[in-house]
Amino acid sequence: MLNDDIIKRNHVNIQGHGTQPILFAHGYGCDQHMWRKVAPAFENRYRVILFDYVGAGRSDLNAYSPTKYASLDGYAQDIIDVCDALQLKNVLFVGHSVSGMIGLLASIARPELFDRIMMIGPSPCYLNDPPYFGGFDSEGIDGLLALMEENFFGWANTLAPVIMGNPDRPELAGELAESFCAMDPAIARNFARATFLADNRKDLPKVTVPSLILQCTEDAIAPVQVGDYMHEQLANSTLVHMRATGHCPHLSHAEETVIRLKKYLSTPLS
């Protein structure tokens, strides 16, 4: 595809006054708008790049392929395509949830593109596989996917509060549910299967790019044990336990998220 086609396909937006690119990648069922409380804090120093995965937000739905996006590799290719289209170098990548793993996969394929990978609530595998604890048993994941098939909008409104946490701020879960419901149900189900059935644990030792893991407390999707596991498996990784609760601190605890990211970026790599 031509560079302009990719920029349009992924609804790429660029802000900021710096030269080094910082690329924000949204999580499952979301779009670039979810970064509105965090991304502007980096515009003075960096070239801030936002995009939507194909099938999400204002991306070109005509470019969606159920086969390509049946695995996380298809989404990793979106990241690589955007980087190539913009001729990016030394990319600072920030990925929420499943985008953390997607970013790592992109860095394995093209390590020369990236300077650092920063992940918020990542997980290489959501399934419990003792002694590994991913947070879900097989019946739970099967039930989740079955509910999506039977009643997608009911699933969205049931799962959003679980993912968001922070029950004292129901408007946050409401926004997440609305974001889920805005997706094409067939695309959402395909992305959910690619996310919750993935097992990328064996890919972690292949990562050579320095990384940050931001681990929230009371995260129902990526428990503390997952963050610890990723830190053990990723060479040159930094693990930070946040005070923030839930799975979406860039929405619920944006100020702390910005502080943690900036502190990591200000720390020289060893």
Automatic annotation (TrEMBL):
InterPro entries: AB_hydrolase_1, AB_hydrolase_fold. Coiled coil: none annotated. Gene3D superfamilies: alpha/beta hydrolase. Residues 22-258 form the AB hydrolase-1 domain. Transmembrane segments: none annotated. Belongs to the AB hydrolase superfamily. This is Sigma-B regulation protein RsbQ. It comes from Paenibacillus phyllosphaerae. The lineage of its organism: Bacteria, Bacillati, Bacillota, Bacilli, Bacillales.
